[in-house]
Amino acid sequence: MNDNARATQGAETDENENRNGNGNGNENENEDRNTPETPIKLDDVADYDDLLDRHELVLLEFVTSGCGICASMEPVLGAVARSAPGAVATVNAGYVPDLADEFGVRRVPTLVVLKDGDEVARLDDGFQSAETVVEVLETHAAA
């Protein structure tokens, strides 16, 4: 990465942090407004536990390497992270099998919605549109 790309990336990171309420003095009382605008990558169970500690509403997307449908869901999850309530996270079931086992993941992609740590919805029948996923999250945010 060249110096210009690093500077641009740093500016984008600073801008995202400001939009996400990280120290700019304009934090919203709604804790979910402090969620990242891109999906969070969970690398282990400790990351998952930390996510649950910080967010009331969470969408987990279980994926595997080489899954074409999972790859096609990446831009969808990005749109969901920017527009829906709650935190959006991806978990590679091959790298964090304990978490995949805990949720009984048998196929990918599997989307699991958690509220206060409890599963409240699951979408595991292939590609899902951003509209569908946002609707599910909004329904459970209001409940």
Helix content: 40-55%
What is the domain total for the residues?
2
- Helical region count? 5
Give me the CATH superfamily of the largest domain. Glutaredoxin
CATH topology of the largest domain: Glutaredoxin
Rg over CA atoms, rounded to whole Å, is 15 Å
* SSE order, one letter for each helix or strand: HEHEHEHEEH
Question: Would you write up a description of this structure?
Answer:
Pfam families: Thioredoxin. This is Thioredoxin. Keywords: Plasmid. InterPro entries: Thioredoxin-like_sf, Thioredoxin_domain. The protein has five helices and five strands, in the order H-E-H-E-H-E-H-E-E-H. With about 140 residues, it is an alpha/beta fold. A five-stranded mixed sheet has the order 1-3-2-4-5, sandwiched between helices. Helix 3 (about 70-85) links the parallel strand 2 and strand 3. Helix content is about 45%, strand content about 20%. The protein folds into two domains: about 1-35; about 35-140, Glutaredoxin, CATH 3.40.30.
How is the secondary structure organized here?
Elements: H1 3-19, E1 40-42, H2 45-54, E2 57-63, H3 68-83, E3 87-92, H4 97-102, E4 110-115, E5 118-123, H5 130-142
Parallel strand pairs: 1-3, 2-3
Antiparallel strand pairs: 2-4, 4-5
Helix pairs in contact: 3-5
